[in-house]
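Feature request, filed as a ticket because there's no other form

It would be nice if the structure record came with a short human-readable summary line next to the tokens. Right now we just get the raw output. Example of a typical job, pasted below so the devs can see what we mean:
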Amino acid sequence: MTTLTAPDLLGQALLDYHGGRTTAALTVHCNAADDEPLPAAYFFRTLLQMPALERRALDECRGRVLDVGAGAGCHALELQSRGFEVKAVDVSAGAVQVMGARGVRTAARHDLFAPLPAGELPYDTILLLMNGLGLAGTLEGLDRFLAHARTLLAPGGQILATSSDVSYLYEDEEGALVLNLNGPYYGEVEYTWTYKKQTGEPFPWLFIDGALLNDAAATAGYQADFLDEEEDGQYLVRLVPVGLAEADNQAI
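Raw output as currently delivered:
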């Protein structure tokens, strides 16, 4: 019996772009917004092409770095150039292939909840950029990730992540929020990729407002430090597990 798997549309687009098809672009379908094109070129941006929040996040990295949802490896390559030891992971096999071809020294196919491989040291920084907290999918998934991340972090380790408050999508013409209070959290959305007339399987994505993230972090035993925010509601946050930070201080 043959097992059918969803096409790796992101990987196909990245491989096409890396192979010279510079116009390669996915179409992003979202149940909360209009369809949008996503050029593959965006995953290959240089430091100067990165948003300010991403550049700030790279400046805040320390120690051994786990770059989650690494795409084509633009952040991992920049950190490598600064002398960091980086492991870049993505669920897309094509993305991992592209990262290796571009010079990312350690790239692997893992998802957000993959355990630390036997013999692998924990990390000082977990990096989740491009609205990276969205990989958790749902509020429940975020709680699960925050618990899991403790097993990936060294004492004194940190999570550096970006997300957005998308409440503006639910404003009426007068600017008032129109929300279904009996429905799911407004930041839990569903995405689908289309590329070369192929459509992938829907996947959940989480956009979480800062206040709710702060509450979730506190419940999970993290200290949240919001480092920067942009006008469109995007922000960069540092999450430090309180227990790990205290253990590190005691060791000193």
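Something like this underneath would help us a lot:
The mean pLDDT is 91.
The longest strand covers residues 153-164.
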